[in-house]
Fold:
Amino acid sequence: MVSYVNNVHDERYKCVNRECQRTDLEPDAVNMEKWTCKTCKKPVHVKIKDAGRPLWVKRIRAKAVKAGTDMVYLPHKFDRAFQVKTSAKGTGKDHSHQWMLVLADNGSTLYRMPDDYVDVDA
Structure:
């Protein structure tokens, strides 16, 4: 199953692998199912347009988000990132198949499929 992430705000892509030296990737050079460089298979960072400031994010699977470490951006809202307080399998009959990300400050909880990608601060 292909995990979808909305990339309408994407402006540029760059490979994080310094040895690859692919600092400005065209969209066709990015594996958008895994958010990696097609040349070296390492992750890419994504420059977000219309964020009001230069903003680079990385895309990781919801189940890989680390509580207390990662800062997550809400979908389509790039004015600020929220620290993740909890990253765990959802509970209850409505969310047991999803991944739960509890965010600090605004008290919201995001539910995503475990393999869905989210934007985190690069």
Notes: Residues 89 and 99 are 5 Å apart (CA to CA). The helical segments are 92-95. The first strand starts at residue 10 and ends at 15. Strands lie at 10-15, 30-31, 36-37, 44-48, 55-61, 71-74, 77-89, 99-103, 109-112, 117-121.
